[in-house]
Amino acid sequence: MALAVLRVLEPFPTEAPPLAVLLPPEGPWPAAGLGLVLALRPAGESPAGPALLVAALEGPGTGTEEQGPGPPQLLVSRALLQLLALGSGAWVRARPVRRPPALGWALLGTSSGTGLGPRVGPLLVRRGEALPVPGPRVLETRPALQGLLGPGTRLAVTELRGRAKLGPETEDSSRPPPPPLVSSFAASGTVRRLRGVLGGTGNSLGVSRSCLRSLGLFQGEWVWVTRVGESSITSQPHLATVQVLEPRWDLSERLGPVSGQLGEPLADGLALVPATLAFNLGCDPLEVGELKIQRYLEGSSTPENKGSCSVLPGPPFAKELHIEIVSSPHYSTNTNYDHVLYRHFQTPRAVQEGDVLCVPTVGQVEILEGSPEKLPRWREMFFKVKKTVGEAPDGPACAYLAAASHTSVYLVGSTLSLVPGLPSGESTPWSSLSPPGLETLVTELCAALKPRLQPGGALLTAPGSVLLRGPPGSGKTTAVTAACGRLGLHLLKVPCSSLCADSSGAVETKLQAAFSRARRCRPVVLLLTAVDLLGRDRDGLGEDARVVATLRRLLLDEDPLTRYGLALGL
């Protein structure tokens, strides 16, 4: 790296870029006819420090002072000296860069009256500076802070506000220009609040397009979601992306005149919150409530000199993810689910310690083979995050992305936990958490069951059994299913006809096995349908005292192992 002296040339040629250097006729560098890029660094700084890339052009051959002995002189403008924080006559180290870094992506900002001109290149650009062509300013570059903008660079253009004039230099060059504001998207510290309603899938908040613009967020941007009015102890912030939900198309009459008409759009100020995200936030499924949105890494203490800070940062990938399978009556905890987990984490997923993960199993044959149900269905599996290992930046909480290509996933055992009540794929009024005509019954069931879910509650040692009576088709099972979905309880349905046998001892054995199965996947509601069949003898005329005594003992059992296990009879 050769030493050189910077000299101010006034007036600087107007045809040359203001941040370029003019080479002496006879210098240590090759001819600049084919385009030469120099890396400049103050002579007193460490060779490992950052360098400024500048375009080097052939200087004037006549009309300048003779070059004396010593380092060669580089003719520069005052704008370049201010950028380097040096004065005229300062010594720098300069070396030619034969292969400047090529930019893969760049975000350009334009004023309301200007646009992009013809794309010429490659151009040497830096983040925060204006392009040589009039108009655009470089707001963000990847993968480097400076490099060549060429045909292979993907461009994104947005509108700049808060700056009346865009150009290489302003008339008053002594005052630094104000930082560019990309609409309202770059404004930090903005309070963003939404009212959440249950809906959507994955880990994405669904909003309307106008709501996304009013929030000042980008499509697919990572944000922290927190319940308003809750402390960080009771409700930990969680990561989610913000996605625009387009209105659904009404295709109920595909051949009619209304075919293809847009459905009702999502109202502004509302956000569809997936059931799993609402559960991990501790929200009530019926009333998610108001949510506070904070963009990822906003207000974090990330050093300015630590690389390029993008306006769309994402959480880092976890090195290790330790999870436990949640015991459920719908699948076995002893089966190997490596393929299920591998398929799930082929897509990066946001994970935090203590969260419950919902893993779909559609198309997984091992789920059907290991299902304890007589009529196997494609059930969702639940896993609880026990531990995450990685390097996360400072933030409201410690969150990572888990992916099969970056993260080692370990299944370290099983656990007992509440689970989110996921909507069924039928999407009928009867499959909702508030079935029409049964709202009062569902509310009464929740009021009866909820105290047993609170450790230390007054009703914890009381009998956990409820009897529902009504004609077939009156909605008893529907109401119980909705109550379990609201409270996050597992539901184990056992028809009592399957418990009947030739002898009282066999009935007793089957009945005890049903309660033992429910105890292994608590908190659970054991739903016994047609329970009146258990009390009859073989002739159906009398009462089987032995079976009735066994059922009564199981229902009134106050063993601590049966806590959070409740039985309902229909």
Automatic annotation (TrEMBL):
Pfam families documented for this protein:
AAA, DPBB_PEX6, PEX6_vert_N
**Record-linked SUPFAM superfamilies:** P-loop containing nucleoside triphosphate hydrolases
Positions of the UniProt region annotated as Disordered: 166-185
Q: Tell me the ranges covered by the AAA+ ATPase domain, including all copies.
A: 462-568
* GO MF annotation list: ATP binding; ATP hydrolysis activity
The record's InterPro entries line, in alphabetical order, gives: AAA+_ATPase (IPR003593), AAA_ATPase_domain (IPR050168), ATPase_AAA_core (IPR003959), DPBB_PEX6 (IPR057604), P-loop_NTPase (IPR027417), PEX6_N (IPR057605)
Q: Which CDD domains match?
A: RecA-like_protease
Please give the SMART domains that the UniProt record associates with this protein.
AAA (SM00382)
Q: Which PANTHER family match?
A: AAA-FAMILY ATPASE, PEROXISOMAL ATPASE PEX6
Protein name, as recorded: Peroxisome biogenesis factor 6 isoform 1
